[in-house]
Amino acid sequence: MTDEGDPADSLVLRVANRRQSLERDLASHVTAKPLSPEEAKAEADGPVSISDLVPGEAGVVREFLAGRTFVARCLALGFTPGTQVRMIQNPGHGPVIVLVRDTRVALGRGEAQKIRVVRKEEADVEAS
Questions:
Q1: Can you give the CATH number for the domain in which 78 is found?
Q2: 3-state SS of 3-40?
Q3: Are 88 and 98 in contact (CB under 8 A)?
Q4: For residue 115, which of 68, 69, 70, 56 has the smallest C-alpha distance?
Q5: In this structure, are residues 89 and 96 in contact, taking their beta carbons and an 8 Å threshold?
Q6: Are 75 and 99 members of one domain?
Q7: What is the rounded CA–CA span in Å between residue 97 and residue 4?
Q8: Tens of pLDDT, residue by residue, the chain (128 residues)
């Protein structure tokens, strides 16, 4: 896919739901290949940011990609490792609303991107 401005000068692609633009000479050095089935499974099962969850989807808190102050705030809000969270509202930009410990918590998108969760299957969520 090329940029709308000048298709010959850059390459535009989407990586982890973010638009990335590469200059033509840099883009010419990029090689893409599909993931092997093992790599695809590992990628699907690995931790993702809370901001990657869609409304109704659940996950279990695994880690934080932030400093002590932010981690302390998350722990105070109930985002402790092993805790289940459910996405309530995620418009794709701006803040998200997450259900954690029966409480709705609004997080800025930047904050949500720093909290990593493992996705839960719907059957697993109902059983717990």
A1: 2.30.30.90
A2: CCCCCCCEEEEEECCEEEEEEHHHHCCCCCCCCCHHHH
A3: yes
A4: 70
A5: yes
A6: yes
A7: 33
A8: 443 445 557 777 776 666 777 788 887 777 777 877 877 766 667 789 999 999 999 999 999 999 999 999 999 999 999 999 999 999 988 999 999 999 999 999 999 999 999 998 743 444 44
Q: Are residues 60 and 118 in the same domain?
A: yes
Q: Are residues 107 and 53 in the same domain?
A: yes
Q: Do both 77 and 15 map to the same domain?
A: no
Amino acid symbol at 89:
Q
What is the phi/psi pair of residue 99, to 5°? -95, 120
Q: How far is CA 86 from CA 65, 75, 102, 109, in A?
A: 19, 16, 10, 15
Do 65 and 27 belong together in one domain? no
Domain membership of residue 12 as a residue range: 1-32
Whole-angstrom Cα distance, residue 116 to residue 70?
Answer: 13
Q: How many domains does the chain have?
A: 2
